[in-house]
Amino acid sequence: MITGTTKLLGVIGHPVEHSLSPLMHNAALAKLGLNYVYLPFPIEPQNLAKALDGFAAIGVVGFNATIPHKQAIIPLLSEIEPIAQAVGAVNTVVRKNHRWIGTNTDVEGFIAPLQLLDRDWSQTVAVVLGNGGAARAVVAGCTQLGCASVDVVGRNLQKLEEFRDSWQDSPLVVNLQIHQWDALPKIIDQANLLINTTPIGMYPQIENSPLEPALFAHLPKGAIVYDLIYTPSPTKFLQYAQTTGVIAIDGLEMLVQQGAAALKIWLQRETVPVDVMRQTLQQQLYQK
């Protein structure tokens, strides 16, 4: 029940109406029996600074930031945690001592399902499709895992070069190579870990894949193919991958784990009901 003492959490974005974060967070809060509510806040870019002032005024405990605010919010915060500085993006903000503190739990969310696998990451070549904001968390995650190298593939050479150069001042030591899309046939046979960070395959492009089916046959034996998209499940990208016998991972676990990491920060708890968060999303997405 909402009462006069209910504490506020939420997610800001534009648009944000599609977000599944309220579902999983409110399920977890209910399971814990806490008097909190997590709400979606549609904030247009020009209103971001005003929104933070308003959140401070009404005592918002913390919030997630999604597109288009993950980078724009950085200069408005009092402090940025090292992982968010390294990634160059903030997805989680908490209010402490009248100050907004920003961090990034996307990296933790990305690597969570990979850490369950028995792998020597020091021998792993990661190939990342796309060079947008999501790719930044993936590169940081692959570096934290200890991957031998990270190859980022994109279509625009200027943007690829800017992406590569942006890591030069990062506290993370990133062994990063960039390639244009037509180089994929030459490098895919080295890809022990192949990650799609592009929106290709997401609604309404659900019949599309960023890779042609024939290319998956060139993946090394035992490769991992990871799509950050979580609906539809599986995407065409993962369907094609599964025909070659690789390990396939979709984006649902990343969504759950980044959310759980954020909830631990806001509630100052070491554990939260991750299973409840996951089951709530699975029921919403797959069991209609």
UniProtKB/TrEMBL annotation:
SUPFAM superfamilies: Aminoacid dehydrogenase-like, N-terminal domain (SSF53223), NAD(P)-binding Rossmann-fold domains (SSF51735). NADP(+) binds at G130, N131, G132, G133, A134, L228, G251. It is an enzyme of class 1 (oxidoreductase). Transmembrane segments: none annotated. Residues 251-282 form the SDH C-terminal domain. The keyword NADP applies. Pathway: Metabolic intermediate biosynthesis; chorismate biosynthesis; chorismate from D-erythrose 4-phosphate and phosphoenolpyruvate: step 4/7. GO terms for cellular component: cytosol. GO terms for biological process: amino acid biosynthetic process; aromatic amino acid family biosynthetic process; chorismate biosynthetic process; shikimate metabolic process. Gene3D superfamilies: Leucine Dehydrogenase, chain A, domain 1, NAD(P)-binding Rossmann-like Domain. Its EC number is 1.1.1.25. Residues 11-93 form the Shikimate dehydrogenase substrate binding N-terminal domain. It catalyses: shikimate + NADP(+) = 3-dehydroshikimate + NADPH + H(+). Homodimer. Belongs to the shikimate dehydrogenase family. Involved in the biosynthesis of the chorismate, which leads to the biosynthesis of aromatic amino acids. Catalyzes the reversible NADPH linked reduction of 3-dehydroshikimate (DHSA) to yield shikimate (SA). HAMAP family: Shikimate_DH_AroE (MF_00222). NCBIfam families: aroE, PRK00258.2-2. This is Shikimate dehydrogenase (NADP(+)).
